[in-house]
Structures are given as C-alpha cells and as structure tokens.
Design goal:
By secondary structure, the protein is of the alpha/beta class. It has three domains: 158 residues, Alpha-D-Glucose-1,6-Bisphosphate, subunit A, domain 3 (Alpha-D-Glucose-1,6-Bisphosphate, Chain A, domain 3, 3-Layer(aba) Sandwich); 207 residues, Alpha-D-Glucose-1,6-Bisphosphate, subunit A, domain 3 (Alpha-D-Glucose-1,6-Bisphosphate, Chain A, domain 3, 3-Layer(aba) Sandwich), CATH 3.40.120.10; 105 residues, TATA-Binding Protein (2-Layer Sandwich), CATH 3.30.310. Strand 20 and strand 21 form a beta hairpin. The termini are far apart.
Length: 499
C-alpha cells in the first residue's frame, strides 16, 4: 500500500525519498498550490493522483481524465508523478502535453472526457506548483470537493483499481487553435500587443491572434520558466506598465496580456491606460447586452459597482449578480444561473453559451475584446473606456498573511465593521450603508465608496480592493481606513503593491 503522507519532511534525507510529503495548507478553496520540494515532494504528488482517482470513483464519475502541464522546469515531472497515482486508482489518462489551462478544459469537451487535472502554478513565483481539477465540465472543484480530496490524501485512504491507462494526445494545441479560429476574420485591421510574460501562453496566443487577422506585436513571448522580466500576471502593475509602454511605442490599438497558464487576460488601451479587468467586464457587458438584452452577468465581490449602476446596462435589463471571488466559484455560479458571462477582477472571464462553453479562457477573452472593437469601428479602445461612468479604483493589493492566520484576520475585520455599523459609527466620515459578506467583507458607505477585505484562496495573503464613484481622494480615504483596521492585527505584513 502507498504510504500515508507526512506534513513536513526535509530534502536529502531517507524519509524524504521514501515517504510522501503533502503540506495540508496546499489544499485551497478551489485548487491546490504548494512550494515544490518544500511543501510537497514527488511521492506527495503521487498521493494526490491516487486521492483524486479515489474521489472520482466516490463521486460516481467515469474514471477518465485529461491532464496537461505548464512551462516550468519541474511541471512535466510533477504531472507524470500525478499520472502514476491516477493510474493506480484505475483512471484512464489523456495527456495533452504542454498546455494552457483552457486547453485542458476544452479537451474535456473535444475528447468527451469528464474530468480534468491541469498541472500549473498559474502566475505564482517559481518554486510553486499546483493542480486545477474538475469532474463536471465546465466547472472545477470548489470547497466541498477540495475538502474531501484533502481528507482522502492526508489520511492515505486510497482506493486502488485495475484498468488505469495512459494515452498521449498528439498535437492537441492545433485542435484548440482551430476551435477558436474557425470563424470569420475580423473586418477591422487591428494592431495588437500580445504580452505573455515568458509564460506558456507565448507558445499559442500570438499565432491565434494572427490567424484572426490581427497585426501582432509580440512582447515577452519566448518561453522562459525563469520569468526574467516579471511574473506573467496581468493583474500585476509591472506587467501592465510594460504592456502600456509597448502600446505607446508601436501605436497599437490595444494591448492584451496573458497569465502563466493562459486562463486570464489583461488589457491596455491605445493611450496606454491600464484598464482593470472589472472595467473591461463592464465594457464587454455593454457590448454583449446589445446582442443579448436582459442577460445576467456574474461578477466577483472585488469588482466595480458599475455592473449594478451603469445606466447603459440598466436600460438593457441587465442583471448583475455579485458572488464569491475565485475562478471555481464564478464558473459554477455562471453555470447554475445560466448567465451569459462571468467577470472576475483578476482577469478570469467566463463566457457561456452561445458565446463560449462556460470556462475561463484568456485567449477567448482577448477575442471578445477584439470583437467589441470590430463592432465599434469608429471608436478606439480608449473611447470605449472613457464612455464608462467615472470611478476611481485601486489595483488588487495583497498584504502578506500566513495561511494559518489569514481567515481569522478576516473574521476579526468583519467583526470590527459589523460593530461600527451596529453603533451607527462613521467610516471615512460617513455611515456604513451596507456590508456584503458572501466572501470576506465588502463595506460600502453612503456616497458609494467601498472597500473589500478577503483571504486569498491560493497564496498566504489577504486581498484588499477599494473604489469610489466620487473622487480619488475618497478612494484613498477608504484605503487608509481599511488598512488602519487591518493593522490592528500584527499578523498582517507588507503589501505586494499599493495605490
């Protein structure tokens, strides 16, 4: 029998080479992330595969699964270790090789396979690894499935079965590209910066955009798992600044940036303005609601209030549903509600039938942005952006907070805001109008200025976002108020970036 995992072992020891190591905190709300060799070893990845295969059978899902891996030096070996565990649990594995996460999700449909396990650490720093999993297309695991998987793996409660097999699917990326490009070319000639941060998307995104008729200006598209310039994260200001500089240098119509595993997209307009993903969502909702009036759009609690207040969307009967942050949460909510699309401030966008299959795909998001420009031939990206009602919003800001303490800090913060509301006390000089607690706490005061605090689901961090429809000064006041309450907790460390 395969050994039960230990929570901590040390490299270059007998125990490390003979016992699986799986740190419990690696099981997140909707995927799994570990520091490879420090928090999980290859035997631990085998245990994960065995546990996932066991869970599929427990769920009554056909034991057949698609897998792929991102472009990191160790991802292929991690995937192969996981495959050995899956096969031991009797799972038939279809390996599409080097891939983007949406490529693996597409493979569930294309190959008619129920389950997926994509080996990727997305935009995390080098050293991290992880797996995005699902057993019901197009949705991926949420807290219930991840909690059960954690129980199985950590207890070593594996179920072995015969019938496991391995099949490599040759040249699968070409099938994915064909699916996205089997359509009329864009009528409008667009010059597009395609920024990939030396991540996996560099192998695929520029060529697909060219096939659609774009003039593509590549930026950091050579695959390099050292990420020499910056991590491929289109929510990170460093990547957005690089995109903006290239757009201005080349006179491009738009800059499109893709994260490490290609399921997210960031946008810079023709003037070099870095448009946060929630505002791109409002622009796309405006565009799509002309074709599909009365549509429902799901948005995460980090997102702008414009989805509910924009006069254009209101006039077309659009319904906005604010929901929990996290790609699995939004994806499942889109599916459950039959929404046309879901938008997450981190850049995960989910286009449902008839404009997509419901999963997050950064390249498909880019195509929808280009289609929006194509349908508005007389307007630039900046003009479409400037047509939105003005709000002042922060980037996503993440102060360090250990995985073991971050949820407790969020509970204390919620309690503080709830006490202020109950007392009728003022925050930034105004009374609290509402508290949204579906995911952390989003506090809104009388003039519509709001701040959010939640625990990151995949890193030892908190997440802080603020926005004001009134002024930049009000937005900054809210940040200082929220940060002041956070600083009452010594566990909260430095921010990765601030306003």
């Amino acid at each position: 029998m395969f050994p039960k995992p230990a929570p901590q072992l040390f490299p270059n020891t007998l125990a490390y080479e003979t016992t699986p190591m799986v740190k419990p905190t690696g099981f997140r709300e909707y995927d799994a992330r570990w520091l490879f060799e420090k928090e999980i070893n290859l035997m631990g990845v085998q245990a994960l595969g065995l546990g996932l295969g066991t869970l599929l059978r427990e769920m009554g899902v056909k034991p057949e699964l698609v897998t792929g891996h991102d472009f990191r030096s160790y991802s292929s070996s991690i995937k192969l270790a996981m495959i050995t565990g899956l096969m031991a649990a009797g799972v038939k594995v279809h390996d599409i090789g080097l891939a983007l996460s949406p490529m693996a999700y597409f493979a569930q449909f294309e190959l008619d396979v129920p389950a997926v396990a994509m080996v990727t650490a997305s935009h995390n720093d080098n050293g991290w690894t992880g797996v995005k999993m699902g057993a019901q297309r197009p949705v991926t695991f949420g807290p219930d499935e991840m909690s059960r998987l954690k129980e199985i793996v950590l207890a070593g409660a594996y179920s072995y079965a015969d019938g496991g097999s391995y099949r490599f699917v040759e040249n699968f990326p070409a099938r994915y590209a064909a699916d996205l490009t089997n359509r009329p070319k864009l009528k409008r000639k667009l010059k597009v910066v395609a920024a990939c941060g030396n991540g996996t998307a560099g192998a695929f995104a520029p060529a697909i955009l060219e096939q659609l008729g774009c003039e593509v200006i590549p930026l950091d598209v050579d695959l390099d798992f050292n990420f020499p310039r910056y991590n491929p994260n289109p929510e990170d200001l460093e990547m957005l600044h690089a995109m903006a500089a290239k757009v201005l240098e080349t006179g491009a119509d738009v800059g499109l940036g893709f994260d490490g595993d290609g399921d997210r997209c960031g946008v810079v307009d023709n003037k070099g303005a870095e448009i946060f993903a929630d505002k791109i969502g409002v622009m796309l909702a405006r565009d799509l609601s002309k074709l599909y009036p009365g549509a429902t759009f799901v948005v995460d609690v980090k997102s702008t209030g414009l989805f509910a207040s924009d006069p254009d969307l209101i006039s077309r009967g659009v319904k906005a549903d604010y929901w929990k942050t996290g790609h699995s949460y939004i994806k499942r909510r889109v599916s459950d509600l039959g929404a046309l699309a879901g938008f997450e401030k981190s850049g995960h966008f989910f286009f449902n039938a008839p404009v997509g299959r419901g999963y997050d795909d950064g390249i498909l998001t880019a195509i929808h942005v280009l289609d929006m420009l194509d349908r508005n031939p007389g307007k630039s990206m900046s003009e479409l952006y400037e047509a939105l009602p003005k709000t002042w919003g922060s980037p996503t800001m993440s102060p360090h907070c250990d995985d073991e303490t971050k949820y407790g800090v969020v509970e204390k913060t919620l309690a503080r805001f709830s006490a202020l509301e109950a007392e009728g006390a003022k925050l930034t000089g105004q009374k609290i109008k509402s508290l949204v607690t579906v995911n952390g706490v989003r506090v809104t005061v009388e003039d519509g200025t709001w701040g959010l605090v939640r625990a990151s689901s995949n890193k030892p961090e908190l997440v802080v976002v603020v926005e004001s429809p009134v002024s930049e000064a009000r937005m900054r006041e809210m940040f200082h108020a929220v940060d002041g309450i956070l600083r009452e907790n010594p566990e909260v460390g430095a921010y990765n970036q601030t306003i």
